[in-house]
Amino acid sequence: MTRILCNPMDLAYRYQDIRFTGVVGGYTLGQPNRNVHREAADPSLVLYQDRYYLFASMSRGFWHSDDLFDWVYQATDRLPPFDYAPDVREVDGALLISASRKGSNSPFFRSSDPLADDFEQVSGGPFPFWDPSVFQDDDGRIYLYWGCDDVDPVRGVELDRDLKPVGEPVELIRSDTSVRGWERLGENYVVPEPRTEQERMIASFSSGAPYVEGAWMTRHDGRYYLQYAAPATQNNTYADGYYVGEHPLGPFTYSTSSPFSSKPGGFAPGAGHGSTIQDKHGNWWHAATMRISVNGVFERRLGLFPAGFDADGVLTCNQNFGDYPFAIEDGPFDPWARITPDWMLLSYRAPVTASSSAPGHQPALAADEEIRTWWASAGAGLGEWVSVDLGDVCSVAVVQVNLADHELAPLAEPLEEGTDGGHTWRGIYREHVPALLLVEGSADGKIWETLHDGRRDGADRPHACITLDSPRDLRHVRATAVSLPFNGAFAVSGLRVFGRADIELPPAASPTAVRLEARTARLTWPAVDDAVGYNVRYGASPDALYRSWLVYDRNDLDIPSLNAEEDTWFVVDSFNSAGVTLGEAVRAVSAPDRP
């Protein structure tokens, strides 16, 4: 069976019950409010004893898989449920687990058989830390990296076998937005002016600097790649960069190939605070955090992307069309062999109808390629449906149905199990009714065939990626809710249909690229007939275009994520539902001096 992944990863994300008390730094910011939504972030992915283990924030357990495709959730009460950013690495033949804690020393746990739930605390921890990452070198020595702050740096220290520090911590990474454009704060690197007193008060607590966080160490060909995230998890610009050194504690040199993991565009953006591993075949993968941040700042999902190192030792991550379906190969593969998708999006802005709609959540929002907007049924969603009309019969290969959490707090029984630092009561639902869907297709809107029936396996699939046995000739695709958590509304942020349409490819785009200042370039190109979008690829040379930014319905793009020391080349590829037309590389030229 072909294993097809479509980000966000199709996992049974756990529900959070959060009650914000409205107090930050002693200031009351408003009335307390409660929210219930799914959440997972900060993935720590490891291969241990020929099995993959995936730990993520606020999951009260972990996922495991034999093939990076079929994931099974396993709950545990033997690890702290409310400590963010769990780190999991193999140390001395067992898994060593730690997570974030500021109020007291951060403990370490060990497991030699995670599926037997044998986690045991082995150390009270050397000191409080946030966003930890443990690394054991080939010589057996152990190192700890940590840091998550807009002022304090990422640090590192060697640990002994009792997990106590050897020597003094070393300062390793600080932000420098004067030369690293991608570390700048903001959605699309733009920070809006505060509009309300509450927003102004919150802004007053910020230093105005990015958060530098989420360290991860990878050794490759005798060199040490210290990865880190910036600037903020709630922005589409959340990304991972890296430094390189000859020793686990440096000195390190910043790589101008940063960010190596960056996905600011498309349906599900964000690709920061991740982990980089090799699979059973020696292929490299990068797991990262993708943002929604509508119901709450920390409403996030996980993504998995092909990664690797080029001939010059540059760490890369292929995120071209990073939320389109792609195959997980059962053997070695080149992560850059594919820069265009096997199947194109057929449903973008196609007509959508539904059984009912809640105010402000009209059917069209299920096909606008924006995970932060959604269609929702007018009431309880069981039996409600949403259907997309592709406009013509197309060859359909994959359907992805992305569910949203719509006004669940009044329906879910309140939980008060712990606190994440004094301002939020938080519970994690151990169990909930699974999200089960019936997905059907039709060539004429009259005769329907079943493409997927979630009742057959009963698996909770909030981002169900449904790969058909073989492509079908369809014009209509319909999703019906047959089971929903908390008996809530049926809410869909993306009813996404992939395949091929029998139309002509779009012409090539002809961009110009102007360097506005050291860290920003502006691309413009004439609108291409029959194109629905453009994939902008860029990098240090025409042969090293390792970053990308996908856009729809526009023919210009400011890219403020460049490094000041970096010469940058750009390609704009045009695409529609038939495929992609690759563009020609252009070099950014300096803007003329203003009079």
What is this structure, in a nutshell?
By secondary structure, the protein is an all-beta fold. The protein folds into 3 domains: 40-168 and 204-327, Tachylectin-2, Chain A, CATH 2.115.10; 344-500, Galactose-binding domain-like (Jelly Rolls); 512-590, Immunoglobulins (Immunoglobulin-like), CATH 2.60.40.10. The chain is built from 1 helix and 47 strands.
What this model shows, in words?
- The chain is mainly beta and about 600 residues long.
- The chain folds into 3 domains: about 40-170 and about 205-325, Glycosyl hydrolase domain, family 43 (Tachylectin-2, Chain A), CATH 2.115.10.20; about 345-500, Jelly Rolls, CATH 2.60.120.260; about 510-590, Immunoglobulin-like.
- The strands form 11 sheets. Strands 29, 30, 31, 32, 35, 36, 37 and 38 form an 8-stranded antiparallel sheet that branches. Strands 16, 19, 20, 21, 22 and 23 form a 6-stranded antiparallel sheet that branches. Strands 41, 42, 44, 45 and 46 form a 5-stranded antiparallel sheet that branches.
- A hairpin with a 2-residue loop joins strand 19 (about 210-220) and strand 20 (about 225-230).
- It is globular and about 70 Å long.
- The N and C termini lie far apart (about 65 Å).
- The mean pLDDT is about 95.
